[in-house]
Amino acid sequence: xxxxxxxxxxxxxxxxxxxxxxxxxxxxxxxxxxxxxxxxxxxxxxxxxxxxxxxxxxxxxxxxxxxxxxxxxxxxxxxxxxxxxxxxxxxxxxxxxxxxxxxxxxxxxxxxxxxxxxxxxxxxxxxxxxxxxxxxxxxxxxxxxxxxxxxxxxxxxxxxxxxxxxxxxxx
Length: 171
Known about the structure:
The protein is mainly α. It has 8 helices and 2 strands; from the N terminus they run ββαααααααα. 58% of the residues lie in helices and 4% in strands. Strands 1-2 form a two-stranded antiparallel sheet. Helix 5 packs parallel to helix 7.
């Protein structure tokens, strides 16, 4: 078997089943070789590209969810590359929370999940930002998303800012 310009070429002996080699190896370029741009860079770029630009648009909520999901896929792939993208997604969500046509449930879910990933990567300032933002949200707007809201709180129960938020929401 020979590798030729991205394709395998099978010898006549192999076609006839006369080759003693049962294991074929790729002798072409490694799929693990560094590429420019890298997969991480492409995922980061795409997460930002699909983020909503105008929250007055009817599809802003869907775009926000897709961009958030993309950022979290990047977090699973490459945490270091994901941090600035997750931060940007949180900034977008904070801005979207004042828009009437973006469901708060979607925003709360995205912010809580991004906070969890950032904290997992050692960025504990994300917990402070999350708590400060959550304290501005009327408690009645959080009722449908308690599971998502509580995850950073139960993962980091001793964090002072999260304790204040929990007391405000549930105390």
